[in-house]
Design a protein that fits this description.
Layout (H helix, E strand, L loop, with lengths): L8 E5 L2 E3 L3 E10 L10 H12 L2 E2 L4 E7 L5 E7 L5 E7 L11 E11 L2 E11 L6 E5 L14 H13 L11 H9 L2 E2 L13 E2 L3 E8 L3 H11 L6 E4 L5 H4 L4 H15 L4 E7 L4 H11 L4 E7 L8 H12 L4 E4 L6 H5 L8 H11 L2
Parallel strand pairs: 2-9, 10-13, 10-15, 13-14, 15-16, 16-17
Antiparallel strand pairs: 1-3, 2-3, 3-4, 3-7, 5-6, 5-8, 8-9, 11-12
Helix pairs in contact: 3-10, 6-7, 7-8
Length: about 375
């Protein structure tokens, strides 16, 4: 039952992304108080997370997105929230909307009205650089954040206890993930040196996107976790699930990932992508399906082996298919050991592979 059924409607934007011709942004309208993941006691951690679930979706809310064109003109688009409170702006950009040389976060504004009058909230949109040729698409659970999920009810319950009782900064990151992701992402641009409002978020040399079967309710939790652990920020494609086993289990996990990855890869026809995942929730087979369907677009595949069990017959077949396509694939228990794979991988045909290896080895 919603805790704030009569609270004023609020818009909660998720990270968007754009190209020179198209922009994608999702947000959600909820009757809830704004609750960020701040430090505090166990009760505060439980209260904050539960408030993200115990909320009342606002259907049929008119939302206006304002964005500034390269010539300084404000362009507006309108959309209406669906029955679950979600609103999606998937728009073509009129005229010329060139990208900067390097990736940066841009800002658009979302406007709506509630019982308290006209409202506005900024939303961040990732714009990969015009010179960007390689992006990274990553899983989340057991790829960057330890969950210990193996599909058993006990493992699922243990992870929900962690979510309820631990602040994001208290969660355990996968060992060496910060170093490995930092190497994949390349240079991180300091927002303190930027004048553009959107660059209050740090951008990396190579853009990151995240796909997961985790629910959209955990968006701010995951953002706080990545900030606390020094991991790169990027748009996330999550799912609309409640408190049930499918939220963190393997059911329908692969299908959602395949569709999400295809959408991102298709959004940027001039870029190739490295895929990063683990072997606990069908990433091997999902990545194999993507590689087969998007031939020539996948530069490399990284799989962290988190489970003790050997690969299933389906995973063995997917691995063979990936290798037959000539896509370099690393499968190992620790990102620390991945430096040998990185040494042998020419990700974009220039010095990127050497730079990545040097970065990883210098951090050891």
């Amino acid at each position: 039952m919603p805790i704030f059924p009569t609270a004023p409607a609020q818009i909660h934007p998720f990270f968007g992304y754009r190209s020179e011709t198209r922009l994608m942004l999702r947000a959600r309208a909820l009757r809830s108080r704004r609750n960020e993941h701040n430090t505090g006691g166990r009760w505060q951690a439980i209260r904050t997370l539960m408030l993200h679930y115990a909320s009342h979706e606002v259907k049929g809310l008119d939302v206006r997105m304002d964005l500034e064109s390269p010539d300084g003109e404000v362009v507006s688009h309108r959309a209406v929230t669906d029955k679950e409170g979600y609103v999606v702006f998937d728009i073509g950009l009129p005229g010329e909307w060139p990208l900067a040389d390097r990736p940066r976060w841009e800002v658009v504004e979302l406007h709506w009205e509630n019982d308290e009058g006209a409202q506005c909230v900024p939303a961040h949109v990732l714009a990969p650089g015009a010179e960007t040729h390689l992006g990274v698409i990553s899983d989340i659970d057991d790829t960057i954040i330890e969950t210990g999920i193996t599909g058993s009810p006990r493992a699922l319950l243990r992870n929900w206890r962690r979510l309820l009782a631990q602040h994001p900064e208290e969660r355990i990151a996968v060992p060496h993930a910060d170093t490995f992701y930092g190497a994949l992402g390349g240079a991180r641009f300091d927002p303190e040196e930027a004048s553009h409002l959107g660059e209050s978020l740090p951008a990396t040399q190579r853009p990151f996107f995240f796909v997961s079967s985790s629910p959209w309710n955990l968006f701010s939790y995951l953002v706080a976790f990545k900030k606390a652990k020094g991991l790169p920020l990027g748009p996330m494609v999550l799912r609309d699930w409640g408190l049930n086993r499918e939220t963190f289990g393997s059911s329908s996990h692969g299908g959602h990932k395949v569709d999400a990855i295809k959408q991102i890869v298709g959004f940027y026809p001039d870029m190739r992508f490295a895929l990063v995942g683990d072997d606990t929730q069908g990433d091997v087979t999902a990545f194999g399906e993507v590689a087969e369907a998007m031939r020539g677009r996948i530069a490399a595949i990284f799989i962290r082996k988190a489970a003790a069990d050997p690969l299933s017959p389906e995973e063995v077949a997917a691995k063979a298919s990936i290798e037959a396509l000539g896509i370099p694939m690393w499968l190992g228990p620790s990102y620390d050991a991945g430096k040998q794979f990185l040494r042998a991988t020419g990700l974009v045909g220039d010095k990127d592979a050497k730079d990545i290896v040097d970065t990883v080895e210098e951090a050891q």
